[in-house]
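Trying the structure run again after the queue cleared.
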Amino acid sequence: MRFRVRKTAHVLERVGLAMAGAACGLFVGAYVGSAISHLTTQGFLLLMMALGAIGFYLGIDTPQLPFDEEHSAIDAAELLSSAGTLCAALAALASVGVIVLRLEPDTGFAWLVLFGWVAGVAMQIVAGAKARMRK
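Done. Tokens:
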């Protein structure tokens, strides 16, 4: 019974992370889509949300290597996960800031946010896949 409860709690936690990633993707998509006219589509919004959901589901809370002499090398999955989470969160925060404060930055800033978001969630997805393959 305890195993089922722990497994259910873990799944609920991961679904919550995926929902947070999708929400972040929605903000990035809304800002970037409004700043770059070619990306003002519902498909673009859905893509940003899907990338966020997958990235946050896989890339946050990855299984870590134990801290001992055998595993003294750098954990690439953990490094990618943390860097990806930082990039994705910064991109989402910048998007929310622009939307809420009604700023009108240069189009280059929108491209930078888009690049940061895609790079961040890509790092999270790779990190999550890499960490789960070594189990």
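The mean pLDDT is 91. Worth checking whether this holds up in the mutant runs.
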